[in-house]
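Entry 14. Structure prediction run on the chain below.
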Amino acid sequence: MCNERCVSGDGEFRRDLEALLFAAGRPLTIETLMSNLSVGARQPTIEVLEEALGQLEAEFPVDGPRGFEVTRVAEGWCMRTNRLAERVLSGLFDTSETLRLSPAAYETLAVVAYLQPVARRQIAEIRGVNSDSSLRTLLERELIQEVGRAEQVGQAVLYGTTERFLLLFGLRSLAELTPLESFEVPADERAELLRRLGSLVAPE
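Output returned:
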């Protein structure tokens, strides 16, 4: 149960919640927040916590006027610097380092993100070129990971995106990826892509 002081607008509760989000440096799940905020006689309910998070989200909106923003990403909640302030932060930190990828790596990452789980051979078929170097880079950056093996003969390694991918791109889940239908693709390129997709065989 939640005692009389455990309300979403309580100063002590809000202070502790903000401190957790700020210090974590990564998204925190509701379960993790509940565990750390349950101290002594204070036993917040999920409803109280979600209300407090909603208030913080409204106070520190994404791309808002504040230096920080509170939002849900990668199945959790986090407090992070407003991306609109990147130009002034660049003098202190290289804020683009984690996403400094080659066009080939970005292309490979897009294939994995939209078609996962996907095998190396399938990626090469779609891109029309060998993607081994790009896959190594994405694995090193922890943007993709091995998620299993194909059931077909050969049991090829299957790749999928990571929680780090969701975090860096500000996504709560893969469901928030921009729909493929929204991209404008020239007719000839669309036809070629469909040809490659149609020619895919079981991964080896």
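The radius of gyration is 21 Å.
Filed with the rest of this week's runs.
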